[in-house]
Amino acid sequence: MSAIKKKYKRITTKTVVEMKANGEKIAMLTAYDYTMAKIVDSAGIEIILVGDSASNVMAGHETTLPITLDQMIYHASSVVRAVERSLVVVDLPFGTYQGNSRKALATAIRIMKESGAHSIKMEGGEEISESISRILTAGIPVMGHLGLTPQSIYKFGTYIVRAKEEEEAEKLKKDAKLLEKLGCFGLVLEKVPSKLAKEVAQSISIPVIGIGAGDGVDGQVLVTHDMLGMTHEFSPRFLRRYLNLYTEMGEAFKRYISDVKSGDFPSKEEQY
Ligand code: KIV
């Protein structure tokens, strides 16, 4: 496999906007801990998302709602310690920014100060515009997130494709333009029809990073544990698995257990 050419020494919010302008696709993955972030960063990924999907992947919750601000800061600071090149984006957790722009700013400041991350991400459009504006006034870069917004799962009721109907699609298009106007440096578009996603990406100058949003956007994001096949219950159409680590790790654990029980491990060479 050919080496990824690292054209940019350090990825900033300006880099990703420039990449869109140059027609270069942007690759984004999640990480929640030091070791994974180190591997993802050195592979040449442009953006590492410390997603609130940590609530599902790391803590085993059914939704992203339970994760706390302290837990997000813990994950983000572990990731930041590993990263040399990627842009680190951290999700503001549910309940820390909706409906109160002062609280939103305080949340964003805590994340930036205590984790050392480079930017934050928030779910929603017009309804959270005051919070986005206030955070931007503090010089904190903001990434938006539209389409399927998992923090609103109890409003939607299901994780099915969003904005298939005209009314929701129109609102989404308006929200994307609003996020650009407010000064967001990019946005995630989750689980929407690819035709709509392409139209949105072509209508704004900031990069649109898709997850289940087709090939007409400016980049792609996946949850790392899903694309590595560490999780196996979750198989949406948009997910490409690059490894099958659930099985491979399970096999390694079984071999280890068997080696311990048989006395094969440790060998004479593995002792002091
Ligand atoms: O939390 C997360 O991992 C996300 C991605 C699915 C975009 O928001």
Number of strands: 8
**What ligand species are in this complex?**
3-methyl-2-oxobutanoic acid
What is the count of DSSP helices, taking H or I runs of 4+ residues?
11
Task: Sketch the topology as an H/E string, one letter per element.
Answer: HEHEHHEHEHEHHEHEEHH
Overall residue-averaged pLDDT value: 97
How much of the polypeptide forms β-strand, as a percent range? 5-15%
Low-confidence stretches: none
| Class by SSE composition | alpha/beta
CATH superfamily of the largest domain: Phosphoenolpyruvate-binding domains
- Tally of separate domains: 2
Instruction: Give me the CATH architecture of the largest domain, please.
Output: Alpha-Beta Barrel
Distance between the termini: 39 Å
Largest sheet: 8 strands, parallel, barrel
* CATH-assigned fold name of the largest domain: TIM Barrel
The CATH class label of the largest domain is: Alpha Beta
Cα radius of gyration in angstroms: 20 Å
Shape: globular
Q: What helical percentage do the residues reach?
A: 40-55%
Order of strands in the sheet with the most strands?
1-2-3-4-5-6-7-8
